[in-house]
Design brief:
The complex is a heterodimer of chains A (about 250) and B (about 270). By secondary structure, chain A is mainly α. Chain A contains 10 helices and no strands. Chain B contains 10 helices and 12 strands. The chains are: A mainly alpha (about 250), B alpha/beta (about 270).
Amino acid sequence: MRRFSTLCYKELLRFFKVSIQTVGAPVLTTLLYLVIFGHALEGRLEVYRGVRYTVFLVPGLVMMAVLQNAFANSSSSLIQSKITGNIVFVLLAPVSYVEFFAAYVVASIVRGLVVGLCVLAVTLFFVDLPLHAPLWALAFALLGAALLGTLGLVAAVVSDKIDQVAAFQNFVVVPLTFLSGVFYSIHTLPPFWQRLSHANPFFYMVDGFRYGFFGASDFAPTASLAIVFASLLAVCSATLWLLKSGYKLRY
Amino acid sequence: MAEGEFFGLLGPNGAGKTTLINVIAGLVRPDAGRAAVMGADVGRDYRRARRMLGVVPQELVFDPFFTVRETLRLQSGYYGLARNDGWIDEVMHHLDLTAKADANMRSLSGGMKRRVLVAQALVHKPPVIVLDEPTAGVDVELRQGLWQFVRRLNRDGHSIVLTTHYLEEAEAHCQRIALLKDGRIAALDTTRNLLGSFSGLDLRLHLDRAPLPVGIPGRVVEADGAHFRVRLATYRELEDALVRLREAGVGIREMEVHPPDLEEVFLRLTGRGS
């Protein structure tokens, strides 16, 4: 337990020490999305009856921040440790691959939730947001952050360079979050894109998270939760297997 | 390797010294064979094996996010140690790190970073300490301090494994030496025996003319114009050689006599010398 908690604490300390970059920057980015998209589209779209577009936008943006930051935390920390070589301090110690996995993922969840809460707190200055079922929102935030934290871990394990992690972020994480219905309801999409959206696990996270606020969603929240949970289990098992094999960590 | 030993691991670049250490440390998985630290298999019983082992890596690695004290506390935690500040203070004191305890790792000089690496390897008081090229790029003062500390640890019962390029260091500190070449042990013996087995003198001559007169004792190992290297068994043979040169009327321009040293042994065994 001490080994896990130390490694997790180290990960948290790392991002708190550079909180301008790790918390401040994503909050600013999200606010820019809110201001720009809100300004451009306010009044033209009404996704749910009686919900202004800016208000509709907020939960999606919060969830996007949660997901992207959870991914960024584990991936950037581990790839930096691999490149600078200080990962050796953990590898030399009697830390098991399960402890290693849990520490990185839990720290990613914390980072995702902290950034998400900060974004939420700041946006509350601009919009009045209902909170229909907070536990649903929390459940989706937790599972989503865990999934992305795990994916970040995988990206860093298999990469040798920072560019490769960035490619994973730019070509996988960003497109999947942008196309997950953060900025729109997928019901406004042509049928083909609607079907395609259903194949995107990020869609269920964003949609389920939004349900926690509005009590309305594109897809049944229980089904979304099951899908997200199943995805998480699959990704976690694959990651644990990868870590156990020592791939690109122990040669 | 026996408990409490000060053991040297020598060999040319690429001989497999660091690879061997990485196998023992669990950083590299061996294709065949097994390694154990104090009886604990590095694979099956990795927790116990790693607790027994403190490794000072060759590369000057550090985590730029933390101070010296944070680094050492974190490292203690990775070994499952909760309250370790007493020992951390002691290690920092011995390595002259106390003044830098709250300095960020990034701000330290190379020598200081090396000391922190040593301290990190010692946080869990491992019975076996591995120093992989610990004095590479380290100034004389630190080198002395480091050796004093390492010898003290050895006296206190810690087993020490040292890899080094500086043969005089191995000669000065190690009780036993293994010479690696192409991943195999080319020689394994006590330092004294290794030196003893290469007893004799290396006589280097620059004469005023070639060839070397006949009747010189020993074995000519190198001849280049009027330069010769002759291996002699005893000082008596040296006297005979000089007499022989005088008789032949050959003058000496320069002369050097070398006792055997590890370098000689090293070069011979690794096949790069004669």
